[in-house]
Design brief:
Two copies of one chain form a homodimer. By secondary structure, chain A is an alpha/beta fold. Helix content of chain A is 42%, strand content 13%.
């Protein structure tokens, strides 16, 4: 046996890589794609990405960048005009003054999470996350040797982490928190009072608050407030992937506390070099594409209204407050104790793709399905119709 | 004093972020840009990126992708045709069979380093690096809670880490190594014998070898061999940034040991989602742009020949074997014991930008300057002429 064969048998991932969970939704996607490849029409209510192309002005800016720019490396923080435009966004929409010096253009919100977490926390630090919540948070924490602390954010907590629980964990040595509003998968939003209280509790305990605002501008009841309205010492993460419909372009941004800007800059130089140059130029045009983007949002709002109107009549009447993002998080415990099996059956028998809650909530996710409503109206209508028929045949 | 003001004063980067060194070369770049902004012509022999645009075929593919594709998320591993084309590259150039299943398209080589290091190593693991070497290796290791072990790769070691030293460190518990060939900053290459011996030593000790092959195809004496020729259990990292001249596009690739593919896929889903979609389609055309890329390489080779001919006559006769990449690593100890101060003086007085060795070698870097020769011929000629005049006036 050669050395290579021997070590091949021994080769194992690191423990931290082993602690990272795969996404169940990816299995759903694979199954759905296999069904489509065999000619079955699948209604997509699982995907978390806006369909279609980025706005016309964004595409035009990308074309222009190919002609006019060499598209070499940029500053690690991103191109100055985009940083300035992002700073201006906070002044315009939130009345908050943010220096462009504190703005970092990142390779999607993904890179921003990594940079913020490394800059803020050392090995073994415990960091609060809402449960249910975006599963990549937990997994990135594991990868970076941090320990997730799940804060209750289900129906008992009114779908938002509570300041009292946060306070108790901070007193017990938790180092900070990474929280989104609106939330994927629930669509719930923190009220201004909740957000400011959570920020205050973390900061008064000497911790660091990271606010994921990727679903800002996709709200249907009231505007979401930025954590920057309550403190200059929070990290605020956002992206061009959701409202701005630029998923595959991998470009987002982060506002960084002044005292940590140098650390983040040096980390970014070493770990990312810069966000894709063409995407930075393209993103600069995204702020001027409001007409097209608001039209998209009107479609999401219509889809949302349709779901809120139709689902209760099918016996699915319990869901989180769908205040933002493009998700409806539905209690399916009247149908199943295993939402993964339910999602599989609905896909195979009704040809509707949905996401089981277990990706988002290791405790109670087996009782929930997430319906995404960012697909085209026809997809949502077809999905609802098929679901209604399937439920008539299969409901208990 | 408010809570926010109080915590603001206390806000400090994590210890691991504090262990990450800034690049001195960035200060040189900033100074050079400031001089240019004030109207001074600077000869650029500091930058490590090919000038100008990506190849025409790459730009054409990017334009086509904007028209024909939605540019949404892709599989975390990257688009299938690109993974297949990369696998084919190993068959064609190296006669090595690599399954496309083992190929991951990454957000530049930067993302590949992060993914490989997390998948392979747990907190506190010691990982061997060549010294001198690419400074981001050390810094990414610190950020990920890994400990760099510097392997001697200066003139005493024949400019390559030696198997004996590697073996001794592995026996003392080192978990693996991350080594490049050709090397930035020295241009030195591992011979086939050296490379195969290093891979064998690491694997026989149960460790993991990560081979950075980003400067492959930029060699001037003989072709570089891939570590995949010696083992299927190595990570091999490459990029479209150097030979293929696509720096700002942020797209590279990694070949992963089969046993770690699933771990890397799940990490990539969580930490990166996918490499920029437009860059993946653009990169697919890079393999067909050989005419243009070989013409670029001929220009580098001419610049290299010019440096090798002219520098010795100026009293700079000691340098690492410039077998690959586009760097010449020059011993300047006859002029200075402080290469940072020397680089500053040469920039200010001779208007030539170079990189001091301290970025690459914390031990002996104060005795070296790195000259990059990927700029245009005119830049290199002007730089050499100014350097010659400055040395006549200032040499001891």
């Amino acid at each position: 046996m050669s050395a290579s064969e021997r070590s091949g048998q021994e080769l194992r991932p690191s423990q931290r890589a082993g602690a990272v969970d795969p996404f169940i939704v990816m299995d759903v996607l694979r199954d759905a794609q296999a069904m489509e490849a065999s000619g079955v029409d699948v209604a997509h209510m699982e995907v978390g990405q806006p369909g279609g192309k980025a706005p016309r002005k964004v595409l035009e800016a990308a074309r222009r960048a190919i002609e006019e720019d060499d598209l070499g490396y940029t500053e690690a923080r991103g191109i100055a005009p985009l940083r300035e435009r992002i700073a201006q966004y906070y002044a315009e929409r939130h009345g908050v003054a943010v220096s462009p010096q504190r703005v970092f253009v990142t390779t999607g919100s993904s890179a921003a999470f990594t940079l913020a977490l490394i800059a803020a926390f050392d090995t073994g630090a415990r960091v609060g996350l809402a449960n249910p919540g975006y599963p990549a948070y937990r997994n990135i924490l594991h990868a970076l040797n941090l320990k997730p602390v799940l804060l209750e954010a289900g129906p008992q907590a009114g779908w938002a982490p509570q300041a009292e629980e946060m306070s108790a964990h901070m007193a017990a040595g938790m180092k900070g928190a990474l929280l989104a509003s609106p939330v994927n998968p629930t669509g719930a939003m923190l009220s201004r009072e909740e957000l400011s209280a959570l920020v205050r509790v973390v900061e008064e305990a000497g911790g660091i608050y990271i606010s994921d605002e990727i679903y800002h501008r996709l709200t249907y009841t009231e505007e979401a407030e930025t954590a920057l309205a309550y403190s200059d010492n929070v990290f605020v993460i956002n992206s061009f992937s959701k409202y701005y419909a630029m998923t595959g372009w991998r470009v987002g941004w982060m506002v960084v506390p002044e005292a940590l800007c140098r650390a983040v800059e040096v980390l970014a130089q070493n770990m990312f070099i810069n966000a894709p140059t063409i995407s930075q130029y393209a993103a600069l045009a995204a702020f001027d594409a409001t007409d097209e983007l608001e039209e998209r949002k009107r479609q999401y709002a219509e889809n949302r209204a349709l779901l809120l109107r139709e689902l209760p009549g099918m016996g699915l009447a319990e869901f989180a407050p769908a205040e933002g993002a493009f998700y409806l998080y539905c209690d399916v415990s009247s149908l199943t104790t295993d939402s993964v099996a339910l999602a599989r059956r609905i896909l195979r028998e009704a040809h509707v793709a949905t996401t089981p809650g277990v990706d988002f909530d290791p405790v109670n996710g087996h009782r929930y399905l997430r319906f995404s409503y960012c697909a085209a109206r026809a997809d949502i209508e077809a999905g609802l119709e098929r679901l209604a028929r399937w439920l008539q045949r299969n409901a208990p």
